[in-house]
Amino acid sequence: MFEERLLQLERQQLVRRLRVFNSEPGPLVTTEGRQVILMASNNYLGLATHPALKQAAIAATEKFGVGSGAARLVSGTLPPHEELESALARFKGTEAALVFSSGYLANIGLIPALIGSGGLILADRLCHASLIDGCRLSGAEFRVYRHRDVAHLQRLLSHRSSRRQTLIVTDGVFSMDGDVAPLPELLDLADRFDAWLLVDDAHGTGVMGANGRGTLEHFGIEERLPFHMGTLGKAIGTSGAYVAGPASLIRYLLNTARSFIYTTAPPPATAAASVAALDLLRTEPDRRARLWENRHHLHAGLMGLGYKTTDSQSPILPVLIGDPKKAVAMASRLMELGVYAPAIRPPTVPKETSRIRITVTSDHTQQQLNSVLAALKTTGHELALI
To answer: Catalytic: which of 101, 138, 175, 239?
Structure first.
């Protein structure tokens, strides 16, 4: 039975396979016996390989062990967890924060805790899968609005009962398109229609805003939005996720978010390394400056080559192909030329929008980025894409 399903996926060029990387996630990585330029990492600031994070993780492991040993509410809460939550609250300017083991667990725990059956959720069409699954698990009526379409969202809000509890859900930075949600307009609608707005700032935290606090800082609305979630596995360079907000919300989630209550606590090494990363966001702002310099250089090069991309405003730079077969062929040819940039296909992205998803980091050199652009030029001409 499974072989038949796999053959069907194979015919559609939708089969995925694991690729092993035999080196740390830097700009150059080793895979299948060769070194290539990595253009697929969310390690935007290069913190995953920073000596300070490694040392913090080693010290925490030596003191507290490898695993936490239990769920947080049993016996799994260790000093690094409390230190991380305090550091996140300070960084985000909120009363408190709560750490989850992954962004997926945060969203499928947070959303059902916020709203249930009888409520209404309105989510952007391109929300991350974890948000979509959290919406479905809540039991609330779930509808989508067109991507970043504030007018469509307003029409949907206008047709609901004014007394119906409503949650608007969006990414801050969309993971596959790299564009940014119109948060001020969404927040205005939430205020006007007495709804909550939930922002998943996974790809904004550490990247967006003058101090890297995310898309809320980018738009200057931090004081207007009482809570949001984000992850630690991207610009922060570790793993896990957080919800930041009022102390009352955090206490409530601690008692109601099933994916927090029934999950083993994150390893103490990860929590300690995350604290070190948050400190580096403050003390090494040049990392973010280099990230944006690299992003603008690569974006200008893509435009100069004539590639079709999205309205990206982030280090995520998709090269739109459309046909999944062509996207796979392009990724394979780029690999031959020493560049790893994978093909992204349905169901991760909508049909007919298959793409090469390129991400840039602060650690890439100009020479490496120029090599990537040269490979993209060669591949584009060979496949008649440019």
So the answer is: 175
Q: pTM of the entire structure?
A: 0.94
| Residue 234 annotated as catalytic | yes
- Do 65 and 152 share a domain, yes or no? yes
**Strands ordered across the beta sheet of 228-231:** 96-100, 241-245, 228-231, 196-200, 166-171, 120-124, 141-145
User: Which of residues 241, 259, 283 is at a domain's end?
Assistant: 283
**Angle between helical axes of 150-158 and 183-192 (0-180°, round to 10):** 10
Please state, in angstroms and rounded to a whole number, the distance separating the CA atoms of residues 153 and 137.
22
CA contacts within 13 A on the Cβ side of 24: 12
Give every strand in the sheet of 316-322, ordered side by side: 316-322, 354-359, 343-344
- Per the annotation, the verdict on 23 as an active-site residue is no
Written as six digits, the tokens of 332 are 């394979």
Identify whether 332 is a catalytic site residue. no
Q: How many CB atoms lie within 10 A of CB 210?
A: 10
Same domain for 64 and 185, yes or no, is yes
Mean pLDDT by 10-residue block, N- to C-terminus, for the chain (386 residues)?
A: 85 83 94 95 98 98 97 98 98 98 98 96 97 97 98 96 92 97 98 97 98 98 96 98 98 98 98 98 97 98 96 97 94 97 92 95 98 97 93
> Are residues 227 and 165 part of one domain?
yes
Q: Which member of 81, 128, 234, 364 is catalytic? A: 234
Residue type, 338: G
Tell me, what CATH number does 364's domain have? Answer: 3.90.1150.10
